Amino acid sequence: MKAGFLLEHNDQLRQLTYLIRAVRQQTRKVFYTQAAKHDLTEAWCLVLGVLHRQAPCALNQLATALHVSNSTASGIVERMCGAGLITKQRLPHNQRQIGISLTNAGKEAYENVERDYWEVLQPLRELPEGKLTQILKDQTMILETLEAINDDQ
């Protein structure tokens, strides 16, 4: 390959990584704003979402879903229990394991944040038909490629 091609290709990859970072920053900003509006943190909103889809949930499952360590997840869970948003109880099928679930207040908080978050993101629905599907495919391919690179390191 010629040096000029490699430089141009590297410039495109640089632009891609910067764009991915910028999109991430903007989506986090929207998410943070909606969470703060309901006196929640981003992490708490993520926990509410995981538990809404999968409860009861063991601590290690929650940590995996959040991409954090068990100790980090444990601290989040303790604070959320103290706020009355979630509850912990022994799982009937495994008495050694604790199941984490939403309380009624947690369900209500989840529904409020979820409603407001998607309302704010409504302009994304104006993307041309089929474009969102293509973006999802492209982003999935990029994610899988980056995961493979990180697995090889």
From TrEMBL:
Pfam families: MarR_2. PROSITE patterns: HTH_MARR_2. GO terms for molecular function: DNA-binding transcription factor activity. Residues 9-151 form the HTH marR-type domain. Signal peptide: none annotated. PANTHER family: TRANSCRIPTIONAL REGULATOR, MARR FAMILY, TRANSCRIPTIONAL REGULATORY PROTEIN. Coiled coil: none annotated. SMART domains: HTH_MARR. One of its GO terms (biological process) is response to stress. This is MarR family transcriptional regulator. InterPro entries: HTH_MarR-typ, MarR/SlyA-like, WH-like_DNA-bd_sf, WH_DNA-bd_sf.
